[in-house]
Write a structure and sequence with these properties.
The chain has four helices and seven strands. The protein is α/β, with parallel strands linked by helices and 172 residues long. The chain has a single domain, classed as 2-Layer Sandwich (Beta Polymerase, domain 2). It has a five-stranded mixed sheet. A hairpin with a 7-residue loop joins strand 3 and strand 4. Helix 1 crosses helix 2. It is elongated, with a radius of gyration of 20 Å.
């Protein structure tokens, strides 16, 4: 029994669609709404104890536009598995359930996906920008983001100016 068959067997019914990538890593195709349940089962039933990354792909202009990818590793079995789900942008933007409570190390990867792609991870305790200023209204890794940027330096100049201002009431 290969790794994909072993994983699908341990997940039980209803098992997600699965295939093996060119790199030999089993990949499960799931619905975004099923992500927490599937990932929790991967952890409890299959022994995947480490989340190695969470990332996204913008497939613009395709619909659904975004693809979310999680990768896990079982230190005991030496296996890896990749989980992918397509996300509709919807009127409120792309949304997915957070797995940060299941895998605390995923918290920063989810924040990075939020910051760069605008994907909101529901249930994330501290979802805020990680790389860009909080006031920045754009998402730099989206395909429709211009290569030259959008006001690339304005917010950094304002931040730098505020950082160097002396607090009110301080002695000179």
């Amino acid at each position: 029994m290969n790794a994909l068959e072993r994983i699908l067997s341990a997940l039980g019914d209803p098992a997600p669609q699965g295939s093996t990538g060119r790199d030999g890593i089993p990949c499960l195709e799931i619905e975004a709404k099923d992500a927490r349940r599937t990932i929790a089962r991967l952890k409890s039933a299959c022994g995947f104890d480490t989340n190695t990354f969470v990332t996204a792909i913008d497939r613009f202009p395709a619909e659904p536009r975004f693809e979310l990818l999680w990768q896990f590793r079982s230190l005991v079995h030496g296996d890896r598995v990749r989980v992918r789900a397509r996300l509709d942008a919807g009127p409120e933007g792309p949304r997915a359930p957070s797995i940060a409570d299941l895998f605390p190390g995923a918290a920063y990867s989810e924040r990075e996906c939020f910051d760069m792609f605008g994907i909101v991870f529901e249930g994330h305790a501290g979802l805020k920008r990680l790389l860009m200023p909080e006031e920045y209204d754009h998402f730099p890794l989206r395909k429709d983001f211009p290569h030259q940027g959008i006001e690339p330096d304005r917010l950094y100049r304002e931040w730098d100016r505020r950082r160097h201002e002396k607090p009110a009431g301080s002695a000179t």
